[in-house]
Specification:
The complex is a heterotetramer, with two copies of chain A (83 residues) and two copies of chain B (150 residues). Chain A has one domain: Beta-grasp domain (Ubiquitin-like (UB roll)), CATH 3.10.20. Chain A is 29% helix and 28% strand. Chain B has a single domain, classed as Alpha-Beta Complex (Aldehyde Oxidoreductase, domain 3), CATH 3.90.1170. In chain B, helix 2 packs antiparallel against helix 3. In chain B, a hairpin with a 2-residue loop joins strand 7 and strand 8. By secondary structure, chain B is α+β, with helices and mostly antiparallel strands. Classes of the chains: A alpha+beta (83), B alpha+beta (150). Chains B and C meet through helix 1, strand 2 and helix 3 of B and helix 1, strand 2 and helix 3 of C. Strand 2 of chain B pairs antiparallel with strand 2 of chain C.
């Protein structure tokens, strides 16, 4: 499946781009992260500490073990600091 | 029914005008609470800029959900959440929330709740630039812990 | 040092203008909380007028003491208490408080504290006139009990 | 001693005047209230339930057993309902 992947804040800076489209068969967010990590050093670096990374599937906060079935847009970002 | 207004914008907002307009003339409202967040300089006066990044689309959805959750928990006549993004300088207003209710305790609790959730459930990230460099503001464990109050 | 402003007046106040002016441009302030009390109509829409009586002299002293107590408990950059007296109609703004602090939790707690003390320690009395007559608003036991929170 | 006595809200209405000056030797607020009660029916009525009455001496909230020594202005009123 094709997924739009978005990166925000220091994840965007470390990976070096705000969004990209990937072709993947990863069943879960965690599996997708493994694929990304294996790609290039900058991904491995960005995802080196998942405790500091949050994920949204189609603009809803989810866990890393969430299924990607039916998903279209995945976003990775650090813990939020609004307000 | 609670009247909910969500606004996410780059341009400055007029806090006074928003307060003047909010719940104006309503006869079912006895209490209005507003909160305004302001870019605060560091103690050593080194902050030059704060840049706020957000996730367009998800931001509006998240804020709307937080406002609707508040309206479910308390009896509110109006709720406003307004949040800026982009570059800001010390002293500038970042965001505001406002709650209106028949009763004081509900307006206070709802505003406090909105701020707790907005802080760690709405996709905003702050980056600070000081004289010595730039860095992303780290979320505090206490922000996440605050959610357990509700 | 906390900048404290106390105003007791018969004439209406401009809530928007007060909010706009409060702690304006301060770079040591990260959070502003405001509360505004509004004359609320009864559920059966019978309220025609609310008259507020007060004790000139003591009122200002009591409000100043409450503001100073808040400034002792929390780190506040500014505090405003503004309260009207005289005849008011439903939908009119009765009073407001505003607190400014470096931190959100302190601004919220201080505003909540000001309201609790103002409610049962400042010499104001409300009389309501409905279609069927006039009567003084009774203090609630819960208002007095609220003070033990602090 | 001469004392200014002020009445507010329904105490003012029941007694029928907002302030008066009295000559008294009452040592405490409670003793002053007894003197006032003994004067006329409207005072007795206004002060019939002291649990519903608050007192200030020189613009400070005090108890009914407070001394009147040095006092100049005494105010009686119901529990406050500001905000």
């Amino acid at each position: 499946m094709k997924l739009d992947i978005l990166y925000f804040a220091w994840l965007r800076e470390r990976i070096g781009l705000p969004r990209e489209t990937v072709e993947t068969d990863a069943p879960t967010v965690a599996a997708l992260v493994e694929e990304l990590r294996a790609r290039e050093e900058r991904y491995a670096l960005a995802f080196s500490d998942l405790a500091a990374v949050r994920v949204a599937i189609d603009q809803e906060l989810r866990d890393f073990d969430a299924s990607l079935e039916g998903a279209r847009e995945i976003a990775f970002f650090p813990p939020m600091t609004g307000g | 029914m609670t009247a909910i207004t969500i606004r996410v914008q780059q341009e400055p907002f007029d806090f006074g005008a928003e307060c003047a307009q909010f719940a104006k003339g309503r006869q079912d409202t006895g209490a209005v609470v507003t909160f305004c967040g302001i870019v605060r300089d560091h103690e050593d006066a080194a902050l030059e800029m704060m840049e706020i990044e957000h996730y367009p689309g998800m931001t509006e959805r998240a804020l709307d959900k937080i406002a609707r959750d508040a309206a479910t928990r308390w009896s509110l006549t109006e709720v406003l959440i307004l949040h800026r993004y982009g570059p800001l300088t010390p002293g500038e207003r970042i965001m505001m929330v406002a709650t209106a209710s028949a009763h004081r305790a509900e307006a206070f609790a709802a505003a406090d709740f909105l701020m707790d959730y907005l802080k760690s459930r709405a996709p905003f990230w702050k980056k600070e630039t000081t004289r010595t460099g730039s860095d992303w503001v780290a979320a505090k464990d206490s922000d996440e812990a605050a959610l357990s109050r509700w």
